[in-house]
Write a structure and sequence with these properties.
By secondary structure, the protein is mainly alpha-helical. The chain contains four helices and no strands.
Amino acid sequence: MNRRICTALAVLSMVILLMTGSVLTVQHCCGRLLRQTERVATSLGTEQTAAEIKALEAQWRRYSIPLHLFVPNQPLTDLNETVFRLDALNTDRCDELRAELAAVRADLEWIRGQELSLF
């Protein structure tokens, strides 16, 4: 086989692997974070809420690093602010907590959908 064809096939394979890896990474990270936001939502108004919010923050710290590789910075910056605002809203017993949690969920679903649309 021609050397140029082999090189082209190798480059094409790497691009496809990178695209597939990015989709799988974003799907996995967003899926984990969405499940944790669901746990926070079901625990609202109970003693467990603060612990679930802390768990969401910990997961966000863990999964935001790989997300930064594949997702533009602006949506992640906005999401970062919202995630770390949840604990303060819970401490103050603020009515905005449910709305901010819904915003986190919506942002994660949007990021997840955007990654699929690129593929």
